[in-house]
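Friendly challenge for the regulars: who can give me the structure tokens for this chain first? No prize, just bragging rights.
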Amino acid sequence: MKAPLKIGLAGLGAVNREVAKRLLAGIPGLALSAISVRDVAKARKTVTGESIPVLDAEKLAERCDVIVEGLPPQEFRAFASPAIERGRIFVPLSVGKLLENWDLVGRARETGARILVPTGALLGLDAVRAAAEGSIHSVKMVTRKPPEGLEGAVYLKERNLSVIGLKEPLKVFDGSAREGARGFPANVNVAAALSLAGIGPDKTQLEIWADPTVQRNTHRIDVDADTVRFSMTIENIPSENPRTGRVVALSVVAQLRGLVSELKVGT
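First reply, four minutes later:
Bragging rights claimed.
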């Protein structure tokens, strides 16, 4: 029997709290080994009890085989870099920040680390990745979220815009996935993931709508390639954090299972 993979959670937001609960409940081949949080008392009370050590970024990377990042965007590199330097598996939830720290991908190639981007709130990334083995002509994503899920985004703050109190849908962004990830770092990491699976962040087109008529975070993706043409729509129930769907945590758990399972389904 192999020793279980030691999982470290960087941050205990809505996603990683659920991941922690499921790891602590027991997943064969996986063990929650350590966490890194600011509010230790809250972490002890809500999730981990007294048994799981709380470590800084360097020690988390030293102790754990896999680091799952679920942090405020400004803390991304502080945890990503030690994990990459130690050749760990790094699972980023702040995928948009990976676009701004692309040197880490090259460094991972040198250290033997792996960066595994979870599917998150999307569907069909297998199909996009397969199409990218040929030639993809275009990828467009249209995101609609309840206004409270977009309020306070960097892009809106820079323009002194508020979307609270809207009575009808308002398109707040139209541009590339790279620009969208930069302007909405806590809202559209899905667009960054889609771009990495397909034709890149500069060619992937993104629209973002603040829509008071929807109660779920909705993403529609249209792909046109030389081998296939398809459209996909997913409606995600928001978690306690309205910026993130409940399915994101389950996507991370599924990806972690795939690291140790004898059967892996999908590309």
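The mean pLDDT is 93. The radius of gyration is 18 Å. Your move, everyone else.
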